[in-house]
Amino acid sequence: MQDVNYIKHLNSIFIQFSKDNRLNPTHISLYIALFQLWNLNRFLEEFYINRDEVMQLSKIGSKSTYHRCVKELSHWKYIIYYPSHNPFKGSKIKMFNFETSSKQVVDSYNPKNGQALVSINKHIQTNKNINKLDRPKNGKEVIDFFKKENWPIIEAQKFFNHYQGIGWKVGGKTKIVNWQSTARNWMLKAEEIKTEKTQKGVSQNQDNLKTSKNKNYNEPL
Hints:
By secondary structure, the chain is mainly alpha-helical.
């Protein structure tokens, strides 16, 4: 039986998941199902599983998908999978302890049970540097993006000046997470306004051919 800190282990494994581009949601749901069974087995070094039970817990409906994902998790050293070819005996799983120690140095990799772990602080700092999309670096980056989307420079300048003035917040309240998505919404809105103006212009030209004695002069032009 291993001494596993439930919270620290999950925090560490989620960090590993976020860095591993090989994984998809099915791998993650399968691992969480196995972790749940590991917990029920009081974190034994190795424990037996029932395929149908694991598939139900992980919401995997295909046997081929299940076998592919469990083999890949084993190959990528998240678990060790011992398949059983006996229909009356379940396969065996060995889980690794991904719990990180507070004594770890930020720039070091400390193997534990064959796993190379990275400090949580390093991962958070790296994510901030790489995935900073809450605002563009400068106006030129916005212009380049609009050009790529085949939009005029003047529209890029309007977008940049508007959100620069309100601190890159939607409605002046909610912080923008991805400025490029916000820019695409800006383009869609601009397209809608342009279409509405065109339709309104056609409608006004048609109405000008007719006169009415009951015109309401309080309505805006």
